[in-house]
Amino acid sequence: MGFFKKIFSKEKKEKLDTGLQKTKEGVWGKIARAVAGKSKVDDDVLDNLEEAFITSDVGVDTTLKIIDRIQDRVARDKYVGADELNDLLCEEITDMLARPENGEDLDDFEVKKTGEPYVIMVVGVNGVGKTTTIGKLAAQYKKAGNKVVLGAADTFRAAAIEQLDIWGERVGVPVIKQKMGSDPAAVAFDTLSSAKAQGADVVIIDTAGRLHNKIGLMNELTKIKNVMKRVVPDAPQEILLVLDGSTGQNAFEQARQFVAATEVNALAVTKLDGTAKGGVVIGISDQFKIPVKYIGIGEGIDDLQIFRADEFVRSLFQTK
To answer: How far apart are CA 99 and CA 309, in angstroms?
Structure first.
């Protein structure tokens, strides 16, 4: 077995299948209706397929792109049976999804030891599961053998600091914090300074989940980034935007706001297990050309999975 097969275990696949069940039932049912009574993929099937994707929160622009790709394949292959449609969709959608910048499959939360910590700045509005995602990331990075430090730079809500503290205790990693109302950039500076002194491998910084206005948000996040660079010149190597998959099209708007405010280079889409709107992962990845790095498919710590496009799409369309 190759490296990819080894790390994507049977247990992870089963969790993925279970976590996407509501979306799968919705998408599968709509596709089944699109091809009902048809022996081949014709214009009627494509029209019904377009409606199925739009109503599954894939988004209009991405849906039209998918339909164009399927039309091209049908024209090229001359005859495409309705029973071949799922495999065709898997191939075309997987090819569309943005990949990590290095083009390699991500390993299981390992980081290269460079002498400087790998810094992740986490952004996103309140309520999307941002702090929970940070806690789960910390747990999995630690499980992979890394020394992890958390920074509570969301100083505008006492509850945010307390919640991160609880996760720190649960996971067994230190949390650097100040009192509510403190300068978030100062917390980030202290966190990186402490992490360097401790020889930490990974630092995860929580930030305020406010969308008060683009300029204010941009200034705040830019200040945090600039201050961190004084301690670790390459920081943050990752700016992770957390989105709630259950909000459907609202997640698109949140993505637009944060992409405009800062240099987001990775996405985490949470709460996919409780929604039929998992198609939003496809639309967001396609429209923003930012790789989805993690997906949340359950409450457990291990239910935050590294996103692999082919496994996700295969699971969504129930193909082997």
So the answer is: 8
Q: Which two tokens stand for residue 103?
A: 């083009």
First to last CA, the chain: 17
Per the CB < 8 A criterion, the answer to whether 182 and 155 are in contact is yes
Span 112-154, pLDDT tens digits: 788 899 999 999 998 899 999 999 999 999 999 999 999 999 9
The answer to whether 293 touches 268, Cβ cutoff 8 Å, is yes
Give the integer Cα–Cα distance in Å for 261 and 66. 29
Q: What is the DSSP pairing of strand 202-206 with strand 175-176?
A: unpaired
Both structure tokens of 290: 């930012």
Listed as own residue / partner, the contacts of 217-226 with beta carbons closer than 8 Å and 24 or more positions apart are 217/257, 217/258, 217/261, 217/262, 218/260, 218/261, 218/262, 220/184, 221/121, 221/123, 221/261, 221/262, 222/262, 223/184, 223/185, 224/121, 224/153, 224/184, 224/185, 224/188, 225/121, 225/262, 226/185
Query: Distance between CA 193 and CA 228 in Å, rounded?
Result: 9
- Hey, which residues does 42 pair with through a beta bridge? none
- pLDDT over 70 (residue 19): yes
- Going edge to edge, which strands form the sheet with 175-176? 175-176, 148-152, 202-206, 118-123, 238-244, 266-270, 292-296, 304-306
Can you tell me the distance from the alpha carbon of 216 to that of 177, in angstroms, rounded to the nearest whole number? 22
Dihedral of CA atoms 130, 131, 134, 136 in degrees, nearest 10, equals -100
pLDDT digits 0-9 by tens, 178-198 = 999 999 999 999 999 999 999
Give the pLDDT mean for 104-114. 68
| Helix 309-316 and helix 280-288, axial crossing angle in degrees, nearest 10 | 140
Number of H helices, E strands in the chain: 13, 8
